[in-house]
Amino acid sequence: MTDMIRAQVYIANTASVSRFLDGYSFFNSPKYAIFPGFCDVHVHFREPGFSYKETIASGSLASARGGYTDVCTMPNLNPVPDTLSNLNIQRKIIETDACIHVHPYGAITVGEKGEVLADMADMAPYVPGFSDDGRGVQDRSRMREAMLKAKELGKPIVAHCEDNTLLHGGYIHDGAYAAAHGHRGICSESEWGPVARDLELVKEIGCAYHVCHISAKETVDIIRKAKAEGVNVTCETGPHYLVMDDSMLKEEGRFKMNPPLRSKEDREALIQGIQDGTIDMIATDHAPHSAEEKARGLEKSPFGITGIETAFPILYTYLVKPGIITLERLLELLTVNPRKRFQLPIGDDFTVWDLEAEYPIDSADFLSMGKATPFEGWTVQGRCMATVCDGKLVYKAF
After folding, report:
1. 91 vs 103: CA distance, rounded Å
2. Are 26 and 352 in contact (CB under 8 A)?
3. 395: part of which helix (H) or strand (E)?
4. Which one of the listed residues 280, 285, 348, 349 is annotated catalytic?
5. 70 is catalytic
6. Residue 300: how many CB atoms within 10 A of its CB?
7. How does pLDDT run along the chain (398 residues), one tens digit per residue?
8. Can you give the pTM of this predicted structure?
């Protein structure tokens, strides 16, 4: 490799990179950068149960196209992975169809109903953690019981924090856009209230606790304070919460996600959180739906957007290029921290990017079956040229 390309390599095992570049000499150019494979701890691949939205095959290929070599899949499936038998249905599909490393979470409760604990002990050797994502565990005593079991098993609780009593049928942020357009809003307390409750339990129990997709400034403050007190907590936010707010909403289903896009002040607090280390990682919450489902507008569409193919270009263009965070910090958020928290090895996996490529985001070009993105038409810089996982070229753009 040339000295310039060596300077752009952010991966320890340069021998495997060199072997790859030997086969593709045109990568010996200053415009190409080589990073460790990204790791997304929050995706929905919809299989088994909802393969008309996404499959393990399509989701993992889309991930490879986004530069990801490890993803953790959420358990809102059919059947819910609340027993080892149910989990093994998903694991078998992963074994045959995934082109990258796919790590399925086990559910916290049976059927994600929040009533009876799932068979956590049986599933523990095969999952990175336990989550009822898509539904918050409403009962404090049930969450306490789950935390005690998770601590015993040495696995984190991965919490979707949402107080159902505060939703009131809302579907976007309870802010200026909702008021101006007659929409029912979701208050921020529906998120930060359960986070505060759970962190009191974590202080008592001492289990590992991870907060999914934080969106509110109060949540950032609560987690920052807990970390200062030594509480075993990590958290994630999504690319869309860092570069968008509710002033950018349109009357289209591709702008509807849970939690919703919140205010400018919330977005600024999240940015501060990734700058000062309060927020540990960025996860996409890649949640594809069919085109028909997402064509029903803000009120009637299901929650969820597609995001794994656009994450790095969005973050590089709108956070790194303007100097909001460094490239090294972005890679820490996308590669180092998620693997450290969930004990996922990096191996020899890496991804090659053309950081000079500029283009508009076009959902028709997505490899994911889900096409609903709030970034449609945004101009970004950075194109994934290749992704290598376990020594195999799993995606190439050439």
Report:
1. 9
2. no
3. strand 392-396
4. 285
5. no
6. 12
7. 333 333 344 554 556 677 777 778 777 777 789 999 999 999 999 999 999 999 999 999 999 999 999 999 999 999 999 999 999 999 999 999 999 999 999 999 999 999 999 999 999 999 999 999 999 999 999 999 999 999 999 999 999 999 999 999 999 999 999 999 999 999 999 999 999 999 999 999 999 999 999 999 999 999 999 999 999 999 999 999 999 999 999 999 999 999 999 999 999 999 999 999 999 999 999 999 999 999 999 999 999 999 999 999 999 999 999 999 999 999 999 999 999 999 999 888 999 999 999 999 999 999 999 999 999 999 999 999 999 999 999 999 98
8. 0.95
